[in-house]
Amino acid sequence: VHAFYYLWYGVPAVDGKWLHWDHKVLPHWDRARRRRRPRRAATAPRRFYPALGPYSSRSADTLDTHFAQMAAAGIDAAVLSWTGRPDAAAVSDTQGVVTDNAVAAAAAAARAHGVGAAIHLEPYEGRHPTSVRRDLEYLVGAYGDALHRMPRRPCGDEPALPVVYVYDAYHNTKEDWAELLCPGGARSIRGTAHDVVAIATLLDARERALVDEGCFDGFYTYFATEGFTFGSTARNWAQLATWARERNLHFSPSVGPGYNDTRVRPWNRAATRDRADGRYYAKMLRSAATSGADMISITSFNEWGEGTQIEPAARPERGAGTPAVDSHLAYEYPDMYLDITRKVVARFKHTRPPEAEL
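The chain above was modelled as a monomer; its predicted structure follows.
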């Protein structure tokens, strides 16, 4: 069980300025609709408030608390958001935050609590097999010993390699990925010191060809909005699990507690999913656990801007330094979603998935 973990938060006391807690309102992706909906300043760019208060992803105390919580909930690895190499011309984060400088501390804190640290390779302008190979050379060279490892395939005698999730893999073609991930590809990492377990997003049913022919080792669905894509629709997970077993691929259906990003994307209300006092999350978790998949990914531990976090939340007291206090939502109790995770994950780990159909 893996959880997506975001390293882009900062506070003035640690980082010299606010990072992501002051997230800007994002314009609509369609230009015509963007003109009809002028941008406005955000008052509080999240619907929930962290029980820890706004924090820095570079705070040792925060990291220690987070990974202790993950370990107690049965989460095996945190998938760390990575926005690009320190020498890259641009980062993938819309707010311009570089997360590479937080990876080492996060990986060390994770290891101290018996939690792994995988990488979430975010898309960036100009991403191509050549640049991704440089990314992997950098990541494995800089952090390889600290990264979570698992076998390339669910069954068989495969080596354990660092795990890298590739977000929005469809931005590149299957031919592009084959150059990098297939043995014998023009830029292949297979069998090199920088080889990894590469797990691609799968949004549309047609992207199975990209996963298979691009030589990925598995796939995940990411979105916490049930029904938003083919991949994020729970009723499709059993057939995806069967397809993965037939090819000996990892399949990680992604589950979330709900979705609400209307503070940063006010035009995106159609994607909102109410938490239903934990019922939405519990149902998604159970669907993933009984799908026949060999893995589960949680979206997310702490993506506060999109309202997908399972991290403890509580309404702030007045005067806590945050605007729009009365509009913050709350859980039934702060650890509610960690407790749901712990209970369902414990059952999942005691149920062996079907063998790969080799």
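Residues 33-43, 322-326 have pLDDT under 50 and may be disordered.
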